[in-house]
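Workshop exercise sheet. Pairs work together: one partner reads the sequence aloud, the other fills in the structure field after running the prediction. Swap roles for the next sheet.
Pair: D.N. / O.F.
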Amino acid sequence: MQTPAQQQAQQNVFNAVQTTTNSQAAPSFSSIHPEPISSQMTVQIEQADNMLNTVLGVNTLARDTEVDLQSYGSFFIGSSNSHPSGVWANINYIDGKVDGQGDLGNFDYYLTSYTFGNSFIHHDDYELGLFFGLSNESMTEHDQVNVSFDSDAYHLGLYGGYRLNDRWDLIWGFGSCLVDHRIIT
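Structure field:
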């Protein structure tokens, strides 16, 4: 239950929001705008997808299919089809640019990741491995708002697979990520 003072404060905030005009809010648009946050979340999702594609693509069961990580600008050191288990490493870099319309969604971004892993259990029908990754995402929004984002992330997880039959494989990955975000306005 709210006290009379709390109710009055809530009403004051409500009245202020209801009576604010666009011209009063416009000066704040150069530093506060939802579009850069939305764009940054999109780039973060691409970085997570990139990490997941890297880890799942290393799985030797997946390598029997048409998985082409070269299209992501990646190259591998270590694990290959001729030597499917053991230590592997991946270095990945993406340089992207999005040109939005109507002064929304114009941004440049750079994704870098270093992923290391070990397929410590490998058999023709199953595989289990551990991965560790370091990644950096840098983005600059340059439309209604000029803002930059920079994030460092640390990834740790397991990956594996199981061959169900000649046509079906179950490939999986499970992990966690710790991210340090910086926003520069």
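Discussion prompt: Confidence is low (pLDDT under 50) at residues 64-73. What would you look at next?
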